[in-house]
Amino acid sequence: MAVPGTAPTLRRTCPENACSMTQTVMCCGTAPSPFVQYLKSPLAVPLTWKNNLRSAFINIIDPFNLLTIAGDSAVGVATNSHSPYGPGFTGISKYAGVSLTEDLTGEFFGTFLVPSLIHQDVHYHREPFMPIKHRILHAIVQVVWSQSVTGRPMPNYANIVGGIATAVVSNTFVPGPGRQGFNSTAQRLAIAYATSPSGNLIEEFVPDIASRINLRVVIFQRILNTVAIEEGGGPGVAGQ
Fold first, then answer.
1. Cross-sheet strand order for the sheet of 153-155
2. Of 86, 108, 136, 211, which one has the greatest count of Cβ atoms within 10 A?
3. Smallest Cα–Cα separation from 8: which of 196, 159, 204, 145?
């Protein structure tokens, strides 16, 4: 496992017959789009600044991201009647606006500008065939140690600089006492870096969980269809 201060080897171990076992194995196969290819290939995929800009834009306008911002804003204002954003719809709008501004800052620096300037691969690369402990450590280390678009190990400048930029923006736009100053900024940075591995852990293990769930759903649907056919119906009747 690569750790900061060493010259890690980027291992993307796959069984020899991985691609013949299933089409959903994440470490093999090809795809026309670099955004799909990086999920399926163990190799680094060189991305241009246009690719990075597009990725940042998609991350911002993603419906789940916008819904998360809206929901978090509504809950934040509703549970704190003395919120510095104010009560009601106005407060929710201000809260959402600040959260969206922080997102924009993080995506601009962390997904577009810094990776484009230093040619860093900002994607998280899974290691699905490594031991569980190795995969957990890999997800944690990736917060501060990543790779270039050619696969060369390098510090995760995108995450480091993006986090600092977002904290600075928070100093400017987030209302309320105790939000400005070095101590407040350092605290937000510490929290941001401490929670960063959660996203990597989701990307590392959720595909494994999803593949098993999908398999069970398919099997269950086939059983229902078989029962429907035996009872004189047709495929899909059992689900109506």
1. 120-121, 145-148, 153-155
2. 108
3. 145
**Residues 178, 181, 184, 188, CA torsion sign:** positive
Note the pLDDT of residue 174: 73
Give the number of other CB atoms < 10 A from CB of residue 208. 13
At residue 141, φ and ψ (nearest 5 deg) are -65, -30
Nearest C-alpha neighbor of 47 from the set 109, 116, 118, 106: 116
Identify any residues that bridge with 147 across adjacent strands, giving them in sequence order.
121, 153
Pair of tokens at residue 36 = 């799909």
The answer for residues whose C-beta is within 8 angstroms of residue 214's C-beta and 6 or more apart is none
Identify the sign of the CA torsion 25, 28, 30, 33. Answer: positive
pLDDT digits (tens, 9 = 90+) for 17-68: 444 433 334 444 433 344 444 444 444 556 788 989 998 999 899 888 899 8
d(CA 91, CA 207): 37
The stretches of the chain forming alpha helices (DSSP H) are 18-21, 34-40, 49-61, 63-78, 88-107, 114-118, 132-141, 157-173, 182-230
Helices 132-141 and 182-230 sit at what angle, rounded to 10 degrees? 140
7 φ, ψ (degrees, to nearest 5):
-105, 90
Question: Which DSSP symbol is given to 112?
Answer: I
Structure tokens at 23: 């089409």
CA 3 – CA 134 distance, rounded (Å): 12
